[in-house]
What we know:
8-stranded mixed sheet; FAD/NAD(P)-binding domain; alpha/beta; D-Amino Acid Oxidase, Chain A, domain 2; Rossmann fold; 20 helices
Amino acid sequence: MPPSHASLPPLAGLETASLDWATDEAGDAAPLSARFGDVYFSRHDGRAETEHVFLAGNNLPRRFADWALARPFVVGETGFGTGLNMLCAWACFDAHAPASARLHLVSTERYPLARDDLARALGAWPDFASRAEALLRQWPEPVAGVHRLELDARVTLDLHFGDAAERLALLEGRVDAWFLDGFAPSKNPDMWRPELFGALAARSHPGASFATFTCAGVVKRGLAAAGFAWRKAPGYGRKREMLVGEIAGPPDDEMLERRGATPWFAPPAPRPARHVAVIGAGIAGTSVARALARRGIDVTLLDREAPGAGGSGNRQGALYVKLAAEPNDQSRVYLAGLQYSLRWLERLDPHHRLWAPCGLLQLAMSEREQTRQARFLATQRLPEALLAEIDAETASRLAEIPIAHAGLSYPISGWVRPAALCECLASTPGITFHRAEVTALSATDAGWRLALANGESLEVDQVVIANAVAANRFAQTASLPLQAVRGQVSQLQLPEHAPALARVVCGGGYVSPPLDGVLTFGATFQPNEAETDLRDADHAANLAELERGLPALVQALRDAGVAFEPAACSGRAGVRAASPDKSPYAGPVPDADAWRRDYAALGKDATRVPDVPGRHHPGLWISAAHGSRGLASAPLCAELIASRICDEPLPLEWPLVDHLHPGRRIVRDIVRGG
């Protein structure tokens, strides 16, 4: 049976590894798992053992040197541990692979190391210092789920935190070479179970290899039962033998079986993607363009105005999510997106010119919100470095302004300069910006032709639609419902010595710490409105909301001489796009007419699921409906789309990928007779 949504990870922190440090005669310390009573790597020469068992055992130097496919070479691992195996694979790739090749690393870990322990362990290999630093800078909090790290321009690491078999069953992607690591079967029998070997086979490319240090009978039997051919090879050091091998034949296509209840979400086959057009230069479009350009694809970015001129054009925006009281797929997506955005921004802008990880407070300003937050905290336990409960006194101390409400603190969140971020992303090498309005799309034998409002046309291999409320104005996307939501932010110029917030504060609206002496706050929420004129009534509403949430700040500003009235405000109105279920659309564009024909039986009996994979417009994708949380969702959705285009493992569990699929509303309407 495929995993159900109930098997997805809870929104919870994981227990980190408990280490002992064993010192050898030379005084060198090696990490030992207190839980499993086994070493992470050999004190004698752990790196040489890794190179013998996993690199040579999978013949990686030659395979890297010969790699000529457009997609990356994918290495999968059971048990990330200290990261030594993956750093060795990265170094081997750099030494042998051609410049055009890319490497994608996928690793599971049930008990992640604390960052300080990881740094100490990797300190044993000084020549890995720069690679270790790239890993440590992005090391995620120990939260169950997928964590994508961009290690360098050619190397990506996906950390799947949780049980290895469960994590691999949720992986959307296939692997070329497996490192079967983890503690010995005698010490960690729960990992080496039949479900693990079945997941390894199901997630293998045809001909995928494996290598492992152990020759235990349970491993040999499990591999053979799953379809791997194994053989013994000389081990390393005192270890006389090890196992290597390959999957015996191409794995059965388990895609439709895995999605037996939802065949419409089966992904389209990969297509060439040398030149891709991205329509829309807001956060959604520019993040997709950057993700594709990083993979060596030529991108033409089109917008009828400048980058960041539309709904993404605000001077400041909160990097913020509001997680549901009970675990659901939408909250899982947004939590993963928030964590990814923080890593992505830190790598993109480590000097914080485009953003500030100053922290964010989500106040419980009503009895209803207090109840909701209490339910959330009772069911979902996240690391305090990511999210913590706070009282009013703590909120006041963190914000450096008196606050009367308790709430939640996101210590590493903050604010972003959306317009400046869009401009930065659009200037990525490999992206050509073209100011133009796309009026129609038509499929060609080679890809797509874009008709432009000035009478010109553009031909490309594939297209990503990311132009917010205009995203469903093409014939191919007309079936996707989008709601326009007008939002106006207000700004006040502050005197030089005016009091200032230290953190973003969210309640009924949001207010950010001042930027260049300007306080930004808002925003109004007006569904089904698309006008962008500035309105005094909306300034008044924003001022009232700010005073309701932070009366002490407002009084201090008045005392400092700030005129707290609409006439003193400047600001900006923008139009956001939202879907009916408030989750983004991110994925391939479905052929709506074909879906209505292929799945018409669902309208009479929703249990009669046709065994027909969903048909899509080949090479047409969409990233839209990010609403007011696009800073936390668009970058991860960009990675999702770019990974799908480039035939890579995906940065989310497959049920969450399905949750974001643009065709979900079509099936819903068929079932409901709409």
